[in-house]
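Colleagues,

For the teaching module next term, I've prepared a clean inverse folding example: a structure given as tokens, and then the sequence designed for it. I'd like students to try predicting residues themselves before seeing the answer, so please don't circulate the second half yet.
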């Protein structure tokens, strides 16, 4: 599994293209394998999946019974707006217009690592989301990570 690190700022041009920062481009590895760009489920941002990670998600989704209505509704909503995208040889990514509209991306963009995917945000929306999340972060950290004392090597998580 790829694990990405860092938060990067960049700009989109009038056509919706953005130049990936060099440190992020290195982390993405082989750019020829392709990527999937989709709407986020929980936030007004986009998610960039390396094809290998997308295939893992699709393996889980393919196990859902499509004759159960809520499963079918979930699949439709999860895959709405999904696009296969390429990063060109100069390191540019073209964001399709419908995804620009969804994410309200204007010019200033934040690329934020989210473990095995990259979130693509309008800078103002990212800062607003981060500010509101920080208010409850201590409670959230305790709830989500509070029961996890040790990793596989016996080292504490902090």
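(Answer key — instructors only)
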């Amino acid at each position: 599994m790829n694990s990405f690190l860092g938060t990067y700022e960049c700009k989109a041009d009038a056509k919706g293209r953005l130049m990936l920062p060099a440190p992020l481009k290195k982390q993405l590895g082989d750019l020829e394998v392709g990527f999937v760009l989709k709407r986020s489920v929980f936030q007004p941002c986009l998610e960039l999946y390396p094809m290998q990670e997308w295939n893992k998600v699709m393996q889980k989704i393919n196990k859902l019974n499509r004759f159960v209505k809520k499963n079918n509704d979930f699949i439709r909503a999860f895959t709405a707006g999904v696009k296969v995208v390429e990063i060109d040889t100069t390191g540019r990514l073209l964001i399709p217009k419908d995804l620009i509209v969804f994410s309200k991306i204007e010019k200033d963009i934040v690329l934020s690592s989210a473990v095995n995917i990259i979130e693509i945000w309008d800078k103002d929306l990212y800062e607003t989301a981060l500010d509101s999340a920080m208010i409850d972060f201590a409670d959230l950290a305790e709830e989500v990570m509070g029961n996890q004392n040790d990793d596989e090597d016996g080292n504490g998580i902090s």
